[in-house]
Amino acid sequence: MQCTVEWNGPEGMLFVSKTGSGHVVAMDGAPEGGGNNLAPRPMEMILTGAAGCAAYDVVLILKRSRQDIAHCNVAITGERADTDPKVFTKIHFVFTVKGKNLSEKVVERAVNLSHTKYCSAVAMLEKTAEITHEIKILEA
Q1: What is the mean pLDDT of residues 98-117?
Q2: Whole-angstrom Cα distance, residue 17 to residue 128?
């Protein structure tokens, strides 16, 4: 896996990442940090990646468990250290899963498996952050 990140200077802090899979992602900074607020912050991308990784796992596990899943949404919040390096110290996931006759036990198992076995992003982030989650199940 690889990517390249290029600064689109000289004004601002806009960076464009080209991924090994052929996709492009922009990142920028806040105006007070020299950016122009044109794209997500790099640390927001880390949270986005963790939420995407966990959501991917949960959907896949639920499908393989023959659950009739129609929708999955993950809201994620992170708190960072006050001093450099400002690593994440707390991260909270809220999984909202919608489907027909979903088993609460199976959904909880899917989230737990993602967090404890499959999600590489969570495995890395839990080295510095307390990871918590909650689950909301909605009937389709």
Answers
A1: 98
A2: 25
Residue 134, by phi and psi: left (phi above 0), alpha (psi -120 to 50) or beta? beta
Instruction: Report the distance separating Cα 27 and Cα 16, nearest Å.
Output: 6
* Total tally of structural domains belonging to the chain: 2
CA distance 71 to 51: 15
Q: What is the pTM of this model?
A: 0.93
- Of the candidates 133, 68, 74, 73, the residue with the CA atom closest to the CA atom of residue 103: 68
| 42-53 CB burial, b ≥16 within 10 A, e <16 | eeeebbebbbeb
Same domain, 127 and 81: yes
Tens of pLDDT along 16-60?
A: 999 999 999 999 999 999 999 999 999 999 999 999 999 999 999
Helix, strand, coil percentages (3-state) for the chain, rounded to 5, are 35, 35, 30
Give CA separation, 121 vs 12, 40, 124, in Å: 29, 18, 5
Query: 73 and 9 in one domain?
Result: no
**Given this model, what pLDDT does residue 10 score?**
85
In 8-63, beta strands by DSSP E: 15-19, 24-27
